[in-house]
Design goal:
The chain is α/β, with parallel strands linked by helices. The chain has helices spanning about 1-5, 30-40, 50-55, 60-70, 85-100, 115, 130-140, 160-175, 200-210, 220-230, 250-255, 270-285, 290-300, 310-315, 320-330, and strands at about 10, 15, 20, 45, 50, 75-80, 105-110, 150-155, 180-185, 210-215, 235-240. The chain folds into two domains: about 1-260, Aldolase class I (TIM Barrel, Alpha-Beta Barrel); about 270-330. It is built from 15 helices and eleven strands.
């Protein structure tokens, strides 16, 4: 893996470093999750996707704090933007920069039905003219030192027309000054079903030459991350579902890239320490009442690393008040037993927790 060890990812003028980063994940990659990922080896993270309308209309209060909260510890960090009206994208992108995000990422990949029905996310892959207008407006709105990036799937569907539109948007976005493009190997219509076509990522990278391409799709282990880089030639990879409840994936990828053995999965005490950190950050962001329910979905994912997964998962599901968290940790993480690697497969429907998400 020496070739990966020597790679340094850059997004325009922003130096990222190690080319395995955390993707945007709707409903998950808030400030708390991003900070934990950074502490455990992620060189760059992306905030969960934000609607242009939300950014422009909600400037104060708890919701704004949740989405727009950026701290020194997590730089460089990207903010992801989604919407339907090209005219809103420029002003919304500028708001992200003012909030402290180092990169503005445009979402042309979300496959969720309600998003497509509102002409957002992956819908834009069906209309290259509108997509490229959005790119131009964002690039014109933000300062030149702020990179603009794009997240795409490989098309709406498997048709020749969809493929042609994909490459029209890909080439046009680079021509308009985009610094990097992330490509997911599934179509919008696939959503999260079936394998991600890594061979398409290799084709895209050959097509763009020395321009920066990041790959996405089916990254559930450190070995997957390095394999995608080696097999496709992409400049980096973005880990989404594989990082929920398993931020150690970034440390593990760094070790493999350095030619070291795969580190053992974190022990129960190591897991408990990170879970406590994660909970404390979420409590700081949301307050104790809201934090308890929001963190439950993370607990369920962390449980996949526990040697008695079902017992730990069920304990997290039963959490109803802040004190329940300490009880779960005291009961199920008391002995420092070896952990386990999470299964390298998605949940039902391939989505986080069986729900709908806009990434990976």
């Amino acid at each position: 893996m020496s070739t990966i060890t020597q790679r340094e990812l850059n997004i325009g003028p922003v130096a990222i470093g190690f080319p395995v980063v955390q993707a945007a994940l709707s409903g998950y990659s808030d400030w708390a999750m991003r900070v934990i990922a950074r502490r455990l080896g992620a060189s760059y993270t992306l905030c969960e996707v934000m609607l242009d309308k939300f950014i422009l209309d909600v400037t104060r209060g708890p919701k704004s704090r949740r989405y727009m909260h950026v701290t020194d510890e997590e730089h460089p960090v990207g903010g992801q933007l989604m919407g339907a009206d090209p005219e809103r994208f420029g002003p919304a992108a500028l708001k992200l920069v003012e909030a402290g995000f180092d990169v503005v990422d445009i979402n042309f990949g979300c496959p969720v039905k309600k998003v497509l029905g509102r002409c957002r996310g992956g819908f834009h892959l069906s209309q290259p003219e509108v997509a490229l207008e959005i790119v131009q407006r964002v690039r014109d709105a933000v300062p030149p030192q702020i990179p603009v990036t794009v997240k795409m799937r490989r098309g709406i569907d498997n048709s020749v027309e969809s493929r042609d539109k994909f490459f029209t948007i890909l080439d046009g976005a680079f021509e308009r000054g985009v610094a990097a493009i992330t490509v997911h190997g599934r179509t919008v219509m696939q959503r999260y079903l079936g394998p991600s076509r890594w061979e398409f990522l290799a084709e895209v990278k050959r097509h763009v030459g020395d321009r920066t391409i990041l790959g996405s799709g089916d990254l559930f282990s450190a070995a997957d991350c390095l394999a995608m880089i080696e097999r496709t030639g992409v400049d980096g990879v973005t880990v989404a579902r594989g990082a929920i409840g398993n931020p150690w994936i970034f440390q593990q990828a760094r070790a493999l890239a350095a030619g070291l053995p795969l580190p053992p999965p974190p022990s129960l005490h190591e897991q408990a320490d990170v879970i406590r950190q994660h909970y404390a950050l979420a409590d700081e962001l949301y307050g104790p009442d809201r934090c308890t329910s929001l963190m439950r979905k993370f607990g369920i994912k962390y449980a996949r690393l526990h040697p008695r997964y079902l017992e730990a998962r069920d304990a997290y599901i039963q959490i109803r008040q802040p004190g329940d968290w300490q009880q779960v940790l005291a009961t199920h993480y008391a002995a420092d037993e070896p952990g386990q690697y999470p299964p390298c497969e998605p949940d039902a429907e391939g989505t986080p927790g069986g729900g709908e998400s806009c990434e990976e």
